[in-house]
Structure to design on (1110 residues):
């Protein structure tokens, strides 16, 4: 295998200009290996092939050429060489960037025996089952020669994540090769599999005297030193990425175990639940159904679905044990509905369930989640996006990089800030994010305007247009839909909103930024058009004329009303003429001529009433057209018809009237010609008087001459108005009408051109995203979904496994926005303990407990000195709270943690309104002493009913006494207490009141917040008893014991992150409700210092405003 044939070789060609004058492109061999090295002190590079050397510099299409050239492990192939010296000489280079390169100083032999030869022959890889042929084929497929040294070879090795150090896998042109090491430290060929790799796959390059050998002649074992070197390089066992991969694997195994415990339920028949649909009713044995339902209640969640298949699932099959396995079958999925008379499976699946089979827990959603996580980690390992991302995540050295020097804010970007003037730290945050070579962190304490920073950054990135294609260039992501929507709240780039991809099945009020933008634009345009119509007398006349013309062209008009409609049109034209807005003379002349034409007789007939038409038809049919009959009363009948129809203007032509008059004057027998003419007239009149049974659209349609004149009128007036001051009104009116009349087309157009795309971490790699980016709904590859920049909000709350997904999609920069001092990501402590038991010191508590945001914050702080620039900025001015509240939050949660002070950007005068019952205090404590009732456990949660009732009373009072525009938030740390408060409030809640646990409040804010403390118990509490004479081990044991005592007594009140969120949601007033005695004394100050500080703050506020009238 030649180097350029490796599927791991990038298809991207990096362009470079040759700076030397003696370069001859014809002397260089394309598709052969070259060496590229960076020259010290500048951006020039040295290119070498055999004995030839050339100096090159990046061209505009160089891409990441400079970055890869700093990595001495990168392998290069010369794709093209053009020109001979001078400015026209240039080269194109492709590269393969391995995770690591390893050189084997000793011979590395791989044993091939007859079993391998037989296997390859059966697979038709070789013609004869001969070991020599097998050795030749394996060498050609998997060993790449090294340029300049025939004795050396190169193989590409897959990194392994599991701890099996005896196994190794090689990557060839089209195949993968599994190797196994025996007890004598000899590697043997195990099997080959057709599995073509891609440039996104990670690999380790091993170079040395590598060869496949006939095992019958003996195979040289590996030396211990070389074995250790190879094992260390090949395995990612114990790294940050691998440990989180192990966590995800155990999560998946736990889901499979849950599904297996739930078991499958057999059904014997399946019919539609009703004629209108509504799901499928299954025939199930009663006892089995009851047992399945009980297991479902214990093991399933509200979001779970079931699958229906004709076979029971095998939880040990490839589909469940191998996330790369694909099952192309269409499986019916739906939600179980437990009914008295059986089981109904609801759902809108396009697939019908089998008539009999099995019901079992669907793991499709969980599998998709883990597939995306796995793809993201592989993309990061391969360096497919931001090239240094893997090294930064693993906290290993990276190539030297310099930040860019782009301008932070332009006038357009400054408009994203409410006052148009950002704080110094906000401007610095945009500058750092723009200029980072890879990752930037923006720490956003509560109320510091991080959403405005994101909006300004979006505008600057779109202005830079680094990808040369503005559409879909920036991804804004977060861990859940609410957070994505909050981040997109102020997004508007070049007048267009962001596009949000995907939605939540649980939410009916799904937010669509494009639809919301269209509604806002329509309202704004309507207001502007209305204003113009009030100030410009011609505007309403133009609108009315436009309406009339459109109606006549599109809908026509009933024949009986046609003349009136055209008269109204003439009146509008006359009114506009007084304002010197009129069509050309030629059109007016043609229009006047048309109006002077008599109406078609059929049009007159259709305007008659049905009774009048029937009477006239009887008279017309009585016309005598035979000689004998005419002799009786022919002249009299002709005269009657003439008299009746003459009054219906337009029904008779002049010739018709003359004929009838002639017939009425006949005395005797008329000639044959007159009778024949009279017969033709009678038939014509009958046709005219018959009802018109054509569709309404055809009956009302104007004739072609009228339609042509109206279309000319539109064109002529449009040209005149466009050149006048009235043209703006017409454009805005049409724009407004299009927004209203064609919402789907508007939405599609905006989605096609918007530069900002929003999605949750998981849905960033969904089929919906693939449809937006590539117009293909197929399962997307990470590379096909790449964005120039990825911004992730609330990054400290996201599980690293999910964060890896959007991070892997960035090609230029990643900006993490969050606050590790607020809510952390959620972990399964049982999985964490299981991994720690398996891995010991490898899985330290910080690997899982610290968010990726906090881990990177620490690393990047340490790297700043060596790199000479910072990737981290903390916003330091809050605009949400009263200054005294802001200062309290700053002291307790940021200054104590060494992050610096968070200043208040608004004066106290902005918060001067009084709260009934609390006056001008900004913080208050409502005491609910222990004697009134203790907390109790309710399921896995906790509640304090007497406190919940007191909270409900205070909230009800505030709702009555506060102005309607003031909002209230009620926060607690326990779901059971939330439910108690909701029950005590009763009924439906007003929109300005929100009750929930602290986890639902990050990113929200209210005028007044009521905090339900809940914890009130008689558990003993003593101050720390650590003595100076203790050994370190004894000190640690006592500290751990003391921590356990404190945690049992206070629970979540010891978590500073949750307290920070709970105490920073209010603008004007924070009210704590609970037993104040729980937070008094030295022991309490040591156990829950933030809660004790809150009580002190409330007491100080009470003393400060003691003389006020509440």
């Amino acid at each position: 295998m030649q180097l350029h044939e490796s599927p791991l070789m990038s298809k991207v060609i990096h362009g470079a200009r040759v700076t030397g004058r003696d370069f001859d492109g014809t002397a260089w061999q394309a598709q052969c290996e070259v060496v590229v090295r960076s020259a010290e002190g500048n951006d020039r590079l040295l290119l070498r092939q055999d004995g030839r050397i050339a100096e090159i510099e990046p061209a505009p299409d160089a891409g990441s050429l400079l970055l890869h050239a700093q990595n001495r492990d990168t392998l290069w192939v010369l794709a093209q060489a053009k020109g001979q010296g001078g400015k026209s000489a240039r080269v194109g280079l492709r590269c393969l960037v391995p995770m690591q390169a390893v050189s084997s100083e000793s011979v590395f032999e791989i044993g091939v025996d007859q079993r391998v030869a037989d296997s390859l022959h059966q697979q038709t890889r070789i013609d004869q089952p001969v070991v020599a042929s097998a050795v030749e084929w394996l060498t050609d497929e998997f060993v790449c020669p090294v340029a300049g040294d025939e004795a050396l070879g190169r193989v590409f090795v897959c990194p392994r994540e599991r701890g099996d150090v005896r196994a190794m896998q090689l990557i060839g042109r089209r195949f993968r090769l599994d190797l196994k090491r025996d007890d004598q430290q000899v590697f043997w060929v195990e099997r080959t599999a057709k599995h073509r790799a891609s440039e996104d796959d990670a690999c380790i390059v091993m170079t040395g005297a590598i060869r496949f050998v006939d095992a019958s002649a003996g195979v040289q074992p590996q030396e211990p030193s070389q074995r250790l070197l190879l094992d260390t390089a090949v395995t990612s066992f114990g790294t940050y990425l691998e440990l989180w991969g192990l966590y995800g694997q155990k999560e998946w195994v736990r889901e499979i175990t849950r599904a297996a415990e739930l078991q499958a339920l057999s059904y014997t028949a399946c019919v539609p639940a009703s004629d209108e649909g509504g799901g499928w009713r299954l025939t199930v044995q009663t006892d089995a159904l009851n047992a399945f339902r009980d297991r479902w209640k214990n093991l399933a969640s509200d979001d779970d679905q079931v699958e229906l298949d004709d076979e029971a699932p095998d939880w040990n099959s490839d589909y469940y044990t191998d996330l790369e396995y694909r099952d192309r079958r269409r499986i019916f999925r739906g939600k179980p509905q437990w009914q008295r008379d059986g089981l109904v499976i609801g759902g809108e699946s396009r697939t019908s369930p089998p008539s009999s089979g099995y019901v079992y827990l669907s793991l499709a959603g969980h599998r998709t989640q883990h597939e995306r996580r796995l793809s993201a980690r592989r993309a990061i390992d391969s360096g497919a996006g931001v090239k240094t991302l893997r090294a930064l995540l693993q906290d290993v050295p990276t190539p030297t990089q310099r930040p860019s020097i782009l301008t932070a804010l332009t006038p357009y970007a400054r408009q994203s800030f409410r006052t148009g003037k950002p704080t110094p730290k906000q401007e610095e945050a945009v500058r750092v994010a723009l200029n980072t070579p890879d990752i930037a962190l923006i720490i956003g304490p509560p109320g510091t305007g991080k959403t405005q920073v994101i909006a300004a950054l979006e505008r600057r990135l779109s202005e830079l247009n680094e990808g040369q294609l503005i559409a879909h260039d920036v991804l804004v992501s977060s861990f859940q839909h609410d957070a994505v929507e909050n981040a997109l709240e102020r997004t508007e780039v070049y007048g267009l909103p962001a596009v949000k991809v995907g939605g939540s099945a649980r939410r009916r009020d799904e937010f669509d930024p494009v639809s919301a933008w269209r509604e806002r634009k329509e309202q704004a345009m309507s207001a502007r058009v209305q204003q113009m119509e009030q100030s410009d007398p011609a505007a309403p006349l133009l609108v009315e004329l436009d309406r009339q013309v459109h109606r006549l062209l599109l809908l026509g008009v009933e024949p009986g009303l046609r003349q009136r409609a055209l008269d109204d049109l003439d009146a509008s034209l006359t009114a506009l003429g007084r304002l010197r807005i009129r069509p050309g003379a030629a059109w007016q002349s043609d229009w006047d001529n048309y109006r002077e034409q008599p109406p078609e007789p059929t049009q007159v007939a259709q305007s008659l009433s049905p009774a009048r038409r029937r009477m006239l038809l009887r008279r017309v049919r009585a016309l005598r057209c035979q000689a004998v009959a005419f002799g009786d009363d022919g002249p009299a009948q002709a005269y009657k018809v003439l008299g009746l129809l003459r009054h219906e203007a337009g029904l008779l032509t002049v010739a018709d009237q003359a004929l009838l008059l002639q017939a009425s004057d006949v005395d005797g027998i008329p000639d044959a010609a007159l009778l024949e003419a009279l017969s033709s007239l009678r038939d014509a009149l009958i046709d005219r008087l018959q009802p018109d049974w054509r569709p309404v659209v055809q009956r009302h349609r104007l004739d072609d001459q009228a339609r042509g004149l109206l279309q000319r009128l539109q064109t002529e007036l449009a040209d005149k108005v466009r050149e006048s001051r009235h043209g703006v009104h017409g454009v805005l009116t049409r724009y407004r009408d299009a927004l209203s009349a064609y919402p789907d087309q508007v939405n599609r157009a905006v989605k096609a051109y918007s530069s900002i795309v929003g999605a949750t971490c998981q849905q960033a790699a969904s089929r919906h995203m693939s449809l937006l980016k590539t117009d293909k709904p197929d399962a997307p590859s990470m590379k096909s979904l790449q964005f120039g920049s990825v911004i992730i909000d609330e990054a400290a709350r996201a599980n690293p496994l999910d964060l890896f997904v959007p991070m892997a999609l960035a090609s230029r920069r990643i900006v993490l926005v969050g606050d590790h001092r607020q809510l952390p990501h959620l972990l399964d402590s049982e999985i964490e303990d299981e991994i720690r038991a398996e891995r010991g010191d490898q899985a330290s508590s910080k690997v899982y407990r610290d968010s990726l945001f906090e881990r990177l914050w620490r690393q990047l702080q340490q790297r700043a000195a060596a790199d000479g620039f910072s990737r981290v900025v903390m916003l330091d001015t809050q605009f949400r709270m009263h200054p005294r509240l802001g200062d309290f939050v700053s002291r307790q949660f940021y200054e104590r943690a060494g992050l610096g002070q968070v200043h208040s950007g608004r004066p106290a005068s902005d918060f001067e309104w009084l709260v009934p019952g609390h006056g001008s205090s900004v913080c208050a404590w409502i005491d609910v002493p222990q004697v009134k009732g203790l907390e109790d456990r309710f399921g896995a949660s906790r509640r304090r009913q007497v406190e919940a009732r007191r909270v409900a009373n205070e909230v009800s009072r505030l709702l009555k006494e506060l102005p309607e525009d003031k909002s209230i938030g009620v926060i607690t740390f326990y779901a059971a207490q939330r439910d108690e408060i909701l029950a005590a409030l009763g009924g439906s809640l007003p929109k300005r009141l929100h009750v929930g646990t602290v986890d639902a409040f990050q990113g929200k804010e209210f005028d007044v917040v009521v905090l339900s403390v809940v914890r009130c118990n008689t558990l003993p509490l003593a101050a720390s008893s650590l003595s100076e004479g203790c050994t370190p081990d004894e000190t640690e044991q006592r500290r751990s014991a003391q921590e356990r005592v404190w945690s049992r007594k206070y629970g979540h009140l010891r978590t500073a992150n949750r307290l920070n969120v709970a105490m920073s949601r209010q603008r004007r007033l924070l009210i704590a409700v609970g037993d104040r005695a729980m937070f008094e004394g030295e022991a309490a100050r040591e156990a829950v210092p933030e809660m004790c500080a809150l009580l002190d703050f409330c007491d100080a506020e009470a003393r400060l405003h003691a003389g006020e009238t509440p």
